[in-house]
Specification:
Order of helices and strands: HHHHHHHHHHHHHHHHH
CATH superfamily: Hydantoin permease
Strand content: under 5%
Shape: globular
Distance between the termini: 45 Å
Low-confidence stretches: none
Oligomer: single chain
CATH architecture: Orthogonal Bundle
Number of helices: 17
CATH class: Mainly Alpha
């Protein structure tokens, strides 16, 4: 596919909506609150924000830069930009593989959000006791029929959006879904803030207790900052290839990172005041959303409306992320294997769905996909992307691409130092922690 015929985003809002939609997913609304809860609240949040600024934005910028400069899918980008360094083509393969594997198990969890939205609409969740909610979640997540049906439905939704292309598919729908997501989470946050006893939740989230900052908390915060931005899985590079030269990449990276962080913090605002208002343990872990919150909604005025809104919010967040993951694979199939986009989308959707079925029927396969991507492929990809831009592409080419919009490039020296030295070491620590060496 030639550069001239490539699809692209139409403008800045489309770029930010799509890229932020990629970053904003279940990781922000499902994972972020319970990770904050398990790691001491405000102190973790502060460390997390520092890592977003210091590490997350420069590495995201490097992925956007790689994609736009090459105007190709993530594998084709490294093949084009580093013909004399074939080792970096492995980064492209890792990105495609990571996106494929992540969506295979992510679609399973996303299917759970559809089930809970269905239950919320039918007003079935509010009739369950706390113990019944826990039992139901365990039995449903371990069953086969329900998760299979909802996972397939979710993948069909994802494929239907991606098959439309960048302008008419991804951009069109993320421009709608992201504002809807933002409005819902703000409304939920306002409601949560008005509950009696909500102040304790705000104190937990925003008043740092630095005595709780340990080496593990720092590594968890760094890992969450890195993974929540969709770095290292080929998504940002792929979306970068659809960004026109007139757009300011640094502003885009900052805007996407801030949008992602804002949604994560708003998720905390929506959840922790309600959790403390009803005497729930904030360290409830992964079951916080599916087991604990329905019990909170039951005791809230207007609980039915807010339970429906919350689980619909989860569906939107999951969908905007899954669309970006599928696009990584579709772009590779289309540009490297020469498939028509429609066929590339069908083949990618069916293939990933089949692997998703394996994840439903085997918790070992589910955990293998999760562990391999989160602890090996993504951090290694992030390290190599930083090294590539910092040492191989270099300051002059990076500056040339960053200034393509015709404006000045700020802080290029600082960015290059981070990419050359700080980011590889920091992400390396996440990698070592993830595989159990630290």
């Amino acid at each position: 596919m030639s550069i001239d015929t490539r699809d692209s985003f139409t403008g800045k809002f489309g770029v930010i909506a799509a890229a932020a939609g990629s970053a904003v997913g279940l990781g922000n609304i499902w994972r972020f609150p319970y990770v904050v809860g398990e790691n001491g609240g405000g102190a973790f949040l502060l460390v997390y924000l520092l890592f977003i600024l210091a590490i997350g934005i420069p590495v995201m910028l490097s992925e956007l830069l790689i994609g736009r400069r090459a105007q190709k899918n993530v594998f084709g980008a490294f093949k084009s930009l580093a013909p004399n360094y074939p080792v970096f083509m492995v980064v492209g393969i890792m990105g495609v593989g990571a996106a494929f594997m992540i969506l295979a198990f992510y679609s399973v969890v996303a299917g759970w959000t559809l089930e809970y939205t269905y239950l919320a609409v039918g007003n079935n969740l509010l009739d369950m006791s706390s113990s019944e909610l826990s039992t139901f979640f365990k039995e449903f997540s371990e069953s086969k029929t329900g998760p299979v049906i909802w996972m397939v439905v979710f993948m069909l939704l994802t494929g239907a959006i991606v098959i439309g292309g960048v302008k008419k598919g991804i951009e069109r729908y993320t421009k709608i879904l992201m504002p809807v997501l933002f409005v819902i989470i703000v409304v939920l946050g306002i409601k949560s803030a008005t509950l009696e006893g909500a102040g304790e939740g705000f104190a937990f989230l925003f008043k740092p207790d630095f005595s709780k900052v340990t080496g593990n908390v720092i590594l968890e915060a760094l890992g969450q900052a890195f993974f929540s931005l969709s770095i290292g899985m080929g998504v940002i590079a792929t979306y970068g290839s659809y960004i026109q030269k007139k757009e300011n990449l640094l502003e885009t990276a900052v805007s996407v990172s801030m949008a992602d962080t804002l949604i994560a913090v708003l998720a905390g605002v929506a959840i922790f005041p309600a959790v403390f208002a009803f005497g729930i343990d904030p360290t409830a872990g992964p079951g916080l959303v599916f087991e604990t919150l329905p019990n909170v909604f039951k005791h809230m005025a207007g609980g039915y409306i807010f339970s429906v809104a919350f689980f619909f919010l989860l569906v939107i967040a999951a969908l905007t992320s899954s669309v970006s993951l599928l696009e990584v694979v579709v772009a590779y199939f289309s540009e490297e294997l020469g498939m028509k986009r429609s066929w590339a989308t069908i083949v990618a959707t069916v293939s990933i769905t089949l692997f998703g079925l394996m994840a439903v029927f085997s918790s070992s396969i589910f955990n293998f996909f999760d562990y391999t991507t989160a602890n090996i492929l993504l951090p290694l990809g992030g390290i190599l992307i930083s090294i590539f831009v910092g040492w191989i592409l270099g300051k002059l080419k990076a500056k040339e691409e960053l200034s393509a919009h015709g404006g000045k490039v700020r802080m290029i020296g600082v960015i290059m130092i981070i990419l050359k030295f700080i980011a590889p070491i920091a992400i390396g620590l996440v990698f070592l922690n993830g595989i159990g060496i630290l």
